[in-house]
Amino acid sequence: MCVGNRDACLHAGFCASVPQPPTITHQSPKDYIIDPRENIIIHCEAKGKPHPSFSWTRNGTHFDAEKDSKVIMKPNSGTLVIDISGEKVEAYEGVYQCIARNEHGSALSNNIVIRQSRSPLWSKERIEPITVQRGMSLVLQCRPPAGLPPPIIFWMDNNFQRLPQNSRVSQALNGDLYFSNVLMDDNRNDYICYARFPHTQTIQQKQPITVNVLDSKYSPSGERAPTFMQPPGMHSTSMVLKGDTLQLECIADGLPTPDISWSKVNGDLPSGRFSFHSFQKTLKITEVTDADGGDYRCLARNRLGSNHHIITVVVRAAPFWISAPQNLILAPKESGMLTCRADGNPKPTVTWSVNGIPIENSHKDPSRKIENGNIILSDVQTGSSAVYQCNASNEYGYLLGNAFVSVLAEPPRVLTPPNHVYSVITNSRALLDCASFDTYYYFFICFILFKFKNGQSVLDGDLYIIHKNNTLEINVARPVHSGKYTCIASNSLGNKENHVYLEVKEPTRILRQPEYKVVQRNGMAEFECKVKHDPTLFPSMIWLKDNMELPDDSRFEVGSDSLTIHDVREDDEGNYTCIRNTTLDQDSASAMLTVVEATPTPPIIMEQPDPPRDLELTDQREHSVRLTWTPGDENNSPIQLFLIQYEDSLHEPGVWVNMTEVSGTSTTAHLELSPYVYYSFRVLALNEVGLSEPSAPSRQYRTNPAQPEVNPSDVEVIGTSPDSVTITWRELTGLESNGPGLQYKVSWRQKDVDQQWTSLSLANVSQYVVTGTPTFTPYEVTVQAVNEYGPGPSPEVVLGYSGEDLPTVAPENVKVYVQNWTLAEVSWDAVPLSTVQGRLNGYKVSYWKLRSLHKQDPEPKKPQELIFQGNETEGLLFGLHPYSQYNLNIRAFNGKGDGPTSSNQIFETPEGVPGPPADLKVENLNLDSLIVKWAPPVEHNGHLTGYLLKYQPINTTDKLGPLKELLLAANETSITLDNLKHSTRYKFYLNAKTVKGAGPTVTEEGVTIMDEGEDYVNSSVEEDHAVISWEYSGPDRNVYVEYVVDNSKEPWKTEFVNGTRTYQIRGLKPGMSYRVRVVAKDHSDATVHSTEELLITVPAMTSKQVDIATQGWFIGLMCAIALLILVLLIVCFIKRNKGGKYPVKEKEDAHQDPEIQPMKEDDGTFGEYSDTEDHKPLKGSRTPSNGTVKKDDSDDSLVDYGEGGDGQFNEDGSFIGQYSGKKEKDTAEGNESSEAPSPVNAMNSFV
Q: What is the C-alpha to C-alpha distance for residues 831 and 844, in angstroms, rounded to an integer?
């Protein structure tokens, strides 16, 4: 009988015509965050027969996609595409569920929550600078806007560089930046928190945070043990879901920076799943299990102490499947069961629905009942197909499983392709498939048709195994099993048969294998590989060298059944393998190739020497013997030395010990021996290559016993308790014992007491404890070695003490003498030595501040402790706080510990000078007034009587002017100083005062507002340089000229011009425009005054022209013209006297032009011109207060270049005027340019 597989149709896809309820095949995730810039696509795909239709619900009500023009449902699919262009995304947010229906049932998708991603802006806020004392802890809060999904936090500076983090400074899981302690390097104004929203790929920036670190030597933050900043306190709780990642965090305050370590209380951290991050401050555990719950300890430690925090981890679990409901195919009248088993923490609630309707609200079905959360179906009927939904939910999530029950009445079907041919190798296993589908209780008849000589077919059941999935197995297939096999499936609605064929092939075997070859270099090697195979199979041949492909070399020739290597080289040596493959099997064989030299010359080989032999003992005495031997072969390397070893078979059998060395030319050695040793000797030879093997051992030589020659060493007497003494020593070795019965005679007695020695003999020990001794009493001790042949030498006496006990008496007559407000002297009476009960190490003085006499301290200070060594009975207490009340006590201490404490002594310190005033600031009001502000001292150290304010001006050479003093009342914190000199820097000195005097001075500088009307700046430009001049009456004498190429990203060039009012900028490029400014800086190099930027343009360089005025031909021409003019003038004069007209006069009368005409080439006439403007020096111009540019008579203008007319320029230097008169060609020097460059003159005042 064969058993059919009902699910084969569903998995193999052969049953396209079989009715099937809907099954959801693809859906969007439960929590679906969308990008508001893109269309919303909600996936829902399902299969079934007939193909299902789709509908949706939104927030629990029907969602009609056809009525919304923005919503499209894909054809033959339930997938929604929502066009949100021009729409608010919020209108489509909600909980969606897809229903896939056909006539056999309804399947439901998960609840799909649609939410748009959000990246809100940071709320506007004013962040005040944070001031913190050096060494204190600090938290910079980020608090990003709540986004969806949450943003990724990181800290950067103004240059977009990540702020460095380490064990001292690190970012917490919530994004805040934690400082375990601050350094002066943390002083900066660009702590910027960034939030990156990954879904929209946007980054939001918080306002920069400024941190000011104070480094006050009067109130520094000292070193301290760790305390926890995050999480606070000693205990906290963390909840995590099973399967998620757990992150635990501990950040500690402390100085020095604490080190963080983690451990699990009552267990170990999970192997392979935990890791540390953020410099050990974060413990990360992946794939959390129930076993990960419990208490975790984080320990913070520095050299001042440690602290710990316990985090209790509670593991919860969203529902998870133990057994999800599975699809069920039943025939009419059959029974079945749907199971739904889920677990979680807390335990999930399981409910059932049918076609999306809660089962309690669905129509009653007598064939269905619920037991123990499972649905039991019995005697099902045709038409009762449905889709069942199982919902398992708790507070952390839910699971929704769809499983259909399909009731079908179908004839059997065989799914294995017909006439399939199976091929196997002889003696291997053959498997013939018969995949089938049937809905009734059914059976299969599987049989084999064999053609024998008699033409009959039989089914030999002993040779075959039929599996439950209808597969027929032949364990050992032979050629006689080849043939046609028929599988028949039958039920009440019909039957179906299928034919397959089995072919059993002959195996592939290598008949002639390659053989081991030894080939001389440059010779030829040939390997054979002949094979026998089934005639219907066609084997291929592959050759490998050392299990790798053959080299790509023409010397390797592969034949049909051989490999030939020509011109063999050394690198051809190796293992060669022949592999013969068919589609069903393969065979392989290997052989080695060794390459040798054609005429090898045996080299000189040096090796270790052969071991010595023939060891003999002679000249045998009580404690010595002579050993002789015969050397072995040197093996081409001379012997350098012989090493002699011995074995003591009595005390350390099997252990060989180096005894002595002799030169390589010796063959004998005299050996000194110890008593009571069973000696065996051996010899090793050493040459340049190494040591030889040891020689055979000599015969055994035994020395006679004797009494010990040495006593135990390292004898110590230690007082471990008040009533005992422990005596320890180092035991003798076997060689040192010198005989059998080794013991140690331990003797002791109390020192300086007429008392006999107490002795005790011990064996095989190295210590003894003497009990019942008085406290801290001196003892004399000896330890002597003794064996059966007598005692060792007289032992040395060692002195020690019994143990100490705590002192019993406290110091008395404790007195405190206050010297001043920070120093006090303390004295006491020494305790009697008899009460110390040990060695007096000294006294411990503990004192602590109870309160300040000026203000109420938040809490008492921790006690300070001074140790005074030995017999000291007085000392000084330094560093006391003025005007405070202190408590003090004293105790003696010894090596055991501290004795009782004396009675407390309370004393008070007098008033002292106050600390420095805080936050001294100077602000300017107007030209001659300044406001000085301050805060009272942090430490008053008494009653403040007032403040002393001094101030004096500073001139431009940093010399100080006359000093003025003001006495101010104690309740004043600001003062306005009038009638000061404008544009002047002042230095201020401020002290607070008590009856004891003035405290430390704080200083600050301030500048009165300068009179802007006194300052101006001029400029003029030539071909390669510019001249800048200015007037400045401010108090700061460090003046600089700065310039840069216009529209350039290059840095400004700065040139120092102290002590002058003009400066020439050289090296400017012709034709380039520059921005120029003059700045004044104070003593700290901070800019206090600056001109506006001045734009200047350097003229383009003109071409080098020949001065024709120096040319001979030009001089001759001019002379000829002058002579001609003189002749004409004479003629005109003569004619005028005669009353006639001349041509020049006619032309002048004809033009009647008041403008002067220039000279023209065509008629040779000359116009009038003036040279009064020629050759004037180049000067700057001053800009009037109304902002217009006044032309200076000395400006470099077109007149200077012989063009005539008044040139007018804008403030930026551009030419805006026109020539006066006609524009003519310049014929004087052949210059093609019709315009000449002009300098730019401008003026800017200090701001």
A: 13
